[in-house]
Design goal:
Layout lengths: L1 E5 L8 H14 L2 E6 L1 H8 L8 E6 L10 H7 L4 H11 L4 E4 L3 H12 L9 E7 L4 E5 L10 H17 L8 E4 L10 H12 L4 E5 L11 E3 L2 H28 L1 H9 L1 H11 L7 E4 L5 E3 L6 H16 L2 H13 L1
Parallel strand pairs: 1-2, 1-4, 2-3, 4-11, 6-9, 7-8, 7-9
Antiparallel strand pairs: 5-6, 5-10, 10-11
Helix pairs in contact: 1-11, 3-5, 4-5, 6-7, 6-12, 8-9
Length: about 325
């Protein structure tokens, strides 16, 4: 399997991206296509003994900055690392792509180059959020900041359910509609209209859910529009960082707390791993006619490695094929 990796995308690129690609090529036996400014990428690769790991550098002369307008990037930067990776995907020279760069640009470019799956109105970005018992898939978290209609939320639910089944291994994922109360009568005009569509569908719809249900394990998939989803995702990331900062501050103040930490070191390490975004790799862009995993802008080498793993699982489980099949069922 060949995975195109945007070597220039993210706050820690290219060093962390190159290291992550090397780790992925070794561990998952994929062929990593590092797309970026050739000499810089090759210079970073010289630090590693590649052995039998398969890596290739694909030249791309331009870089899309994190704060750059996606429409301007699409129009003016035809040879950006994101655009070249998307072309590799379109031509069949890559099976999937990974980018920790400008997510809005990645969305715009992949939509422009690859198009959408048959029968789909809008793609959605799905985030994996740890909960009390496992993980919750939240979508959309940024592809659609406004203007979502009830049928869009139904399609998000279908895509989330397929992803939960195929990649997360959940036999009958519970799907909830994010609202301000569990009662069917509560919610915005869009969620009120989406509710009966979800009830009539074949998915395992458990009704309206509230914010707490994202983290208490009450549901496997939570559906909302991209504005709300992105706000929730950023809030969750901020809370996790705050918890670790507060724990560190308390440990620095107290010798007895440091002793307690030593005694509970393994439990704390496991907790940190559970809530670390790097362990989940990246957010799949569901609904495009291809496979694109969007990594966190702060992705380290471990996050890039896991994003490649997620991309390979997406391909091997034929997620897009199954999404199209389920979309057809709702249209028959």
């Amino acid at each position: 399997m060949r995975i195109a990796i945007d070597a220039m995308g993210g706050d820690n690129a290219p060093a962390a991206v190159v290291e992550g690609a090397v780790l992925a090529a070794r561990e998952y036996q994929v062929e990593a296509l590092l797309v970026g400014q050739q000499e810089i990428v090759k210079e970073n690769l010289r630090e590693y003994d590649l052995g039998e790991a398969k890596l290739e550098v694909i030249p791309a002369s331009q870089i899309i900055l994190m704060d750059e307008s996606p429409t301007e990037a699409l129009r003016r930067k035809k040879d950006s690392s994101i655009a070249v990776a998307a072309r590799l995907l379109k031509s069949g020279d890559a099976d999937a792509m990974v980018s920790a760069g400008n997510s809005a640009a990645a969305l715009a470019i992949t939509r422009s180059f690859l198009g959408k799956l048959k029968g789909l109105a809008r793609p959605a970005i799905a985030a994996i959020i740890p909960n009390a018992t496992d993980v919750t898939i939240l979508l959309d978290v940024g592809a659609n900041a406004g203007g979502c209609r009830p049928e869009h939320l139904l399609q998000f639910a279908i895509m989330g359910e397929v992803y939960a089944k195929d990649v997360m291994g959940k036999e009958s994922p519970r799907v909830g509609l994010l609202s301000v109360g569990e009662e069917e009568s509560k919610g915005s005009p869009v969620t009120l209209s989406a509710f009966p569509l979800l009830v009539q569908s074949s998915i395992n719809f458990v009704g309206n859910v509230e914010g707490e249900d994202i983290v208490n394990g009450a549901t496997d998939v939570v559906v909302c529009d991209g504005f709300v989803g992105n706000a929730i995702l950023k809030f969750a990331e901020g809370v996790a960082e705050m918890i670790f900062d507060l724990m560190k501050a308390e440990l620095d103040r107290s010798k007895s707390a440091k002793l307690g930490m030593l005694l509970a070191r393994r439990a704390l390490q496991n907790f940190r791993k559970r809530v670390d975004y790097a362990e989940y790799g990246g957010a799949p862009l569901l609904g495009i006619n291809g496979v694109c995993i969007i990594g966190h802008g702060k992705s380290n080498a471990n996050a890039i490695k896991n994003a490649v793993r997620v991309a390979s699982e997406f391909v091997s489980h034929r997620v897009n094929e199954h999404i199209e099949q389920n979309l057809r069922k709702t249209q028959d």
